[in-house]
Amino acid sequence: MKIVNSAFHISVSALSGLPEESFPEIVFAGRSNVGKSTLLNSLTGAKGLAKTSSTPGKTRLINYFLINRDVYFVDLPGYGYAAVGQAEKALWGNLLSSYIIQRRSISLVVLLLDSRHPVMQSDRAMIGFLESHERPYGIVLTKYDKLTQKEKVQARRIMESCASKAKFIVNYSSFSGKGKSELLAHFDHYICQ
Ligand SMILES: Nc1nc2c(ncn2[C@@H]2O[C@H](COP(=O)(O)OP(=O)(O)O)[C@@H](O)[C@H]2O)c(=O)[nH]1
Ligand SMILES: [Mg+2]
Fold this sequence. Notes:
globular; seven-stranded mixed β-sheet; 5 helices; Rossmann fold; single chain; alpha/beta; binds magnesium ion; binds guanosine-5'-diphosphate; 7 strands
C-alpha cells in the first residue's frame, strides 16, 4: 500500500471507547521501547504522528490512526515494562487481550521485536497468545541498523524457530528506511480496497 494520508483519530483507555468497526485494522504491538512509535512515524512519513519517547512505558492508551481514509493503524500500549505495578500490569494485559480476542475488524497484528534481543519471555507469551487465538500476525525486527552481521544471522534463526506461524518477518530500521516498502507490500494482503 502507498500511504497518502494519515491522521490521528482517537485514543481510548477502555474497550467501551473503541470506534465503530468501519475499517480493517492493522494493529501494532510490542514491548515498551521496541521502536513502535518511531516505526509508525517512519511508515506514514508523518514525523509527529505517534509520539516517540526514550522513556519506556509511557503510552497506556490504544491509539487509532486513520490511513488513506480507509484503514486504521492501531498503536497498542507497550507490554513488559517492569516498572509498572502488578495491578496495572494485569489491567493493561486484560485490555490488550480482550481487544485482540474480541475485535472482529482486526485484519493483521504486526508484532515488533527488538532485533538485538528478539524473543523475551513476554514476546513469547504474545506469540503464543496470537497463535492460540488464530490471529494472523507478522513480525518486524526493529532497530536492525544496530546489529552486526553475526547478530543478523542469529536473529533470523531464532525468529524462524519461535514464530513458525508468522506470515512474514521483516528486518526494519526506522532510521535508514530499510524494510519500509517490504512491510507496506505485505499490508496489501490484509486490506480490501
Ligand atoms: N537505532 C535505532 N533506534 C531506534 C529505531 N527505532 C526506534 N529507535 C529508538 O528507540 C527508542 C524507543 O523508540 P519509541 O518509538 O519511542 O518506542 P516505543 O516505546 O515502542 O513507541 C527511541 O530512543 C528511538 O530513537 C531504529 O530503527 N534504529
Ligand atoms: Mg510509543
